[in-house]
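Listing S7. Sequence submitted for prediction.
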Amino acid sequence: MMQNNISITTTKDIHTLKADWQRLDEHAAASISNGKIQYMDYTFYQTYAWNSFLYETYNHLFIPIEYVVVSVLGEVKLILPLLIDRLNKRLRVLTGRISGICNVVCPYKDTMAKELIQATLSYLSDKYKGGWKYKFRDVPLRSLLVEVLKDRGLKGGEKCSFHIPVEQFESYDAYLSSLGKNIYKNIRKAYNHLATDGKTMSLQCYTVANQPSRRLLHDLWTLYYRRKMAWKNQHKTLLRKLLIKAEAFKQAVIGRQTKSMLRLEESELFVLFIDDKIAAFMHTYVHNQHVLMPKLAIDVSFSRYSPGILLIQETMKQYIQKGIKDFDMCRGDERYKIEVGGINEPLIGFTISV
């Protein structure tokens, strides 16, 4: 009976979906509040605010964005934003290449929602077949989308994704005492080192109303790409140094994540300074009393003071005071995420050949 009431259309203009999408956003917020769904089922990355930002900043001529719109009796119930690469026969969920959480835009988690997802996948497999590959990356393991994909016999690769359940702690001291002995000692040691070395630490938060300078953005991205080079165990060469400078300049001027820092009210950029020098930075989005962190990097020359750990400690003090419910440190199995109290909420990726 349900299948006969489902209709599926597509559009390339997100503005035609604004009212319906924002209605889904409101329904999701209410469902999260009353416990019908979890925040991981409908995060900031599923909202109209985020997706309209991606739409406005996307400029690839040959790989268009297409929105699959699923309705029941004329009412929109599910939206799936996709990038359609017809030349290479590739289809993937739109993310903007910013570390996040991919999922269908659907504020329901019941039998109806499962049928809608099944109908969506059937629609795609009928429309895009004959050598096509679909990529679903960083989907919450406990989501309905993963359940449907697994029902079809598909297997995906899991990735760690850690979050701190901030709302469990009445105070920062309660949070601090919940940590393991080693990290507790390291935190105390870091603060003590600052005091004994006569160092001055400060934390600055940059938002749309208090924007970072282009110079600061360039310095932050330079730090990030240097750390990225170290993560990949790449040697410092003149060519790599020049590439880092070029990439940092590009990101500071036209990078999508930088644009989000300057345009989105949900964006918060924290920079930890030691003696007025950048020691660490963290970029986050704050939505529905949840914090999502797609980026964090440190300057290893300040490693004696554990700047990344101190940055998280200083922001945790604010989050607890502000009543933040959860701090999602996004995908990655870095040790510090476990040390600061992170709980694994796995993400999973699928590649489907049709």
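Caption to Listing S7: primary sequence and predicted structure tokens for the chain studied. The longest strand covers residues 75-85. The domain at 2-154 is CATH 3.40.630 (Aminopeptidase).
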